[in-house]
Amino acid sequence: MPIEVDTNSLARLVESALPRQLWAIEQHSDRCIAPQGVKVFGRKLKVTPPISCTIRGAVTRGAIRLRGAGQDIVADIPVAARIGAYDVGGILKGKTATGSAVVHARIRLAFKPDWSPAATVSLDHDWVNAPGIDFLGKRISFTEKADERLAPVIRRLEQTLPQELRRMNVRAQVDALWRQGFTVIELNRQRPPVWMRLTPQRLHYGGYEFQGQKLRLNLGLDALTETFVGTRPADPAISPLPAVSPLEGDGRLRFHVPVVADYRELEPVILRALQKRAREPFVLPGIGEVDATFEKVEVYGTRANRIVVGVMIVASQRSGNVSKTQGRIWLSARPSNDANSALVRFEDLAITGDTNGVGGDMLLALGQNSAVSNAIAGSLTQNFSRDLNDLLGKVRHAIENKEAGRFVIRARIDRFSTGRIAAYGQGLYLPVDIEGTALVNFRPAPR
Predict the structure, then answer these.
(1) Is 206:71 a contact under the CB 8 Å cutoff?
(2) Which residues, in sequence order, are CB contacts of 226 under 8 Å at separation 6+?
C-alpha cells in the first residue's frame, strides 16, 4: 500500500540545504609548480626551484534536479568552478581556469521505529572540464582541492536533510493511512448486501521507489478482514500507529474471508424453492398425492453444528375427505460440504412438528419426504455455489477500482479456495481463502 510524496518539496529542501556558493578558496602555495630538471648548454642538469603562487577561486552550483536510481534519490547538482593562480613566482600577475561538473548527491532514506526520517548521503561528480591551468608546459589541476572542499557538503546534507524531511510530514501521512484502514467497504449493495470490515493489525515498510516527480513509499498492511452478508457491521475501533517493521514476503495479496450467510437472508431463498416445488403435488407413501402451500420459513442455528428449519405448511390430500391441515414442521440437520466445494448436503435429518389436527401425520410425512429436504438442500446449494461465483465476480468488480475514503484500490483475484461449511448462531459460515495482487494508492487530504 504505497504513499506517494511530491518530490518537488524534497527538491526545495535540498535546494535550501545547499548554498549557491559551495565553497571559496584563497591560499598561498610554495609549490604550485614542482622543481624541474633542465639541461644547461646541453650538458649540465640543473634543478629549478619550486614556483609559488596564490590560489583563489570559488565553486558555485546551479538548479538541482532529482531523479531515481533504484533505492537512491539522486540530486544532480551542476557545478561551475572558477579558479585562478596569482603572483606565480612573483612574475605572473594571474591566470584563470574554469571547470564544470555535475555533482551527484545520492540520498538513501530510512525510517526510525517512530517513523521519523533518517538519511545517508554520498557524493560523486563528473568533471566535464577539470579545473586547472597550463603553465610552463605543466598542468596545474585543482580537482583534488575541489574534492577536499566538496566533502563537507556530505556532512551538511546528512545533518540537515532529516530535519528538512520531517517538514514533509511523512509520519502524519502514514498515520492518516493507518486510520483510514479501519473501515467497512460495501462489496455488494443488495441481493444480498455484502460488507467487508478491515481492522489493521501491523504496518510494514518495504523501501521506496522514485517515479517521475513522486516518491512512493511501499507499505505492507496486515489486516483482519471480516465479510458480512446482511446488515452493515459497526466500524472497527482505531488503534494507535504501530512502530516500523520490515516488509517481508513476495508482495502477494492474501486474505482469509469468513463468509457468513445471515439466516434471515437464507429464509426467502428456501421459501422460494419450496413454493416452486409445490407447483406439483407431493406423493406420500400410504397417503397419495398431497397439495401443499408453504407460507413461512424460519432458520436458526443450534448446537453441534446443526441448523433447524421451521416451515409453516397448509396441506390437503387430493383424494379422500381429510380437510386441510395447517402446522409448522421443524427439520433439524447438519450441513456439510467437501473442501473446495460449495455443494451443500444435509446429514442426520430429523423431523418434528406442531399441527392442528388429525392430519398432522401427513405434515410430518411431508417433511420426511425427500422432495422437501431436496428442495431445501438444493436452494442452499444454489445459494452457496452459483451465488458464491456471482459474489466473487462482484467482489472482483468492486475491488478492481474501488474508492474507500482516501484509498483507491486496484486489485485482482487470481484464485480462491473454500473450506468446510459450519453452522453458528448468526448464520452459516463458509471460509474462503483468496490470493491475488493489489495496488492501493492513498490520496493525501487537500491542503
Answers:
(1) no
(2) 196, 197, 199, 233, 258
State in Å, rounded, how far the first CA of the chain is from the last one. Answer: 22
**Same domain, yes or no: 104 and 158:** yes
CA distances from 162 to 10, 27, 109, 157, 169 (A): 11, 34, 9, 9, 11
pTM higher than 0.70: no
Which among 174, 215, 114 has a CA at the least distance from the CA of 406?
Answer: 174
Residues 297 and 370 both lie in one domain: yes
Query: Alpha-carbon distance 225 to 255, whole Å?
Result: 7
Of the candidates 382, 391, 388, which has an alpha carbon nearest to the alpha carbon of residue 188? 391
- Tell me how far apart the alpha carbons of residues 133 and 383 are, in angstroms, rounded to a whole number: 87
Residues 158 and 185 in one domain: no
CA distances in angstroms from 355 to 31, 201, 369, 398, listed in the order given = 119, 53, 17, 47
Domain extent at residue 337: 169-447
Rounded Cα distance between 75 and 106, Å, is 6
pLDDT > 80? residue 77:
yes
Looking at residue 128, its amino acid is V
Cβ atoms < 10 Å from Cβ of 443: 15
Which of 126, 148, 165 terminates a domain? The answer is 165
3-state SS of 100-133 is EEEEEEEEEEEECCCCCEEEEEEEEEEEEECCEE
Taking residues 43-52, report their average pLDDT: 62
- Do 305 and 228 reside in the same domain of the chain? yes
Number of structural domains found in the chain: 2
- Give the tens place of pLDDT for each residue, 306-335: 989 999 988 888 876 667 888 888 888 888
- CA-based nearest residue to 208, from 283, 137, 111, 310: 111
Q: What is the dihedral of CA 34, 37, 41, 42, to 10 degrees?
A: -140
- pLDDT tens-digit profile of 234-281? 999 999 999 888 877 665 677 776 677 788 888 998 899 899 999 999
pLDDT value for 235: 93
Give residue 161's identity as a one-letter amino acid code.
L
Name the more confident of 132 and 220. Answer: 220
